[in-house]
Amino acid sequence: MSTPKTLLQMAGADPNPAPLTASTLVIIDAQNEYLDGKLALPGVKPATEALARLLAKARAAGAPVVHVVQKGRPGGLFDLEARGGAVIDAVKQAAGEHTVQKPLPNAFAQTDLDATLKKLGRTSLVIAGFMTHMCVSSTARAALDLGYKTTVAGDAAATRDLPDPTGGGVIAADTLHRTALAELADRFAVVTTVDQIPGT
To answer: Among 15, 43, 89, 148, which residue's beta carbon has the most beta carbons within 10 A?
Structure first.
């Protein structure tokens, strides 16, 4: 059996992530709801540590940073006035960094993210955050449609267990995470680790 290839490999696309000096870092939904709230993710702690390293790396490289946050209903999940909606302390916004509030999984939908990125003038994005199969995936897919080249830091993302809709029991978070990354790597993004993303 031949070794499978992604569509990007078949097309001869550059497999290397763009350096942070030429990219904008987009952090998606790094909120306490995923850290210790009702949606606490199994792999959130190592992913948050990797995300903090990525953020420090981006800041050292002078890369623009955009923090995307899910805007939930008052009293519900991701209530921006409550702990669950607040950005995790380890990756909190710094002065001069942009924050975009979103109502849907795709961070471009009904937000000014695209306009913000265009003002920053960079067409390469580095995306990380939560959840891999949901908001990270939908945003990376939309980014392709809008003309961006995207890198996803796979170790700075995580997701949760889900029920198998075909009746196979439970799909474990790690399996879902790796599958979502494989889907993105097929056509939508370069998928790599924080340490492999060049700072210069």
So the answer is: 148
Is residue 199, in this structure, part of any structural domain at all? Answer: no
Task: Report the catalytic residues.
Answer: 29, 102, 135
CATH number at residue 68: 3.40.50.850
Query: Could you read off the pLDDT of 2-56 as tens digits, one per residue?
Result: 899 999 999 999 999 999 999 999 999 999 999 999 999 999 999 999 999 999 9
DSSP string, 18-87: PPGGGEEEEEE--BHHHHHSTT--TTHHHHHHHHHHHHHHHHHHT--EEEEEE---TTSTT-TTSGGGSB
What whole-number distance in Å separates Cα of residue 156 and Cα of residue 91?
A: 11
**Gyration radius from the chain CA atoms:** 16
Classify residue 11: in a domain, yes or no: no
What is the reported pTM?
0.97
- On whether residue 149 sits in a domain, the answer given is yes
The CA distance from 176 to 169, in Å, is 13
Pair of tokens at residue 152 = 């996803």
Q: Which of these, 187, 191, 155, 159, lies nearest to 175 by C-alpha position?
A: 159
Residue bearing tokens 């992604």: 6
200 within some domain: no
CA 79/CA 33 separation, integer angstroms: 9
**Residue numbers of the domain that contains 137:** 20-194
Domain count for the chain: 1
Low-confidence ranges of the chain (pLDDT < 70): none
- DSSP bridge pairs for 67: 27, 99
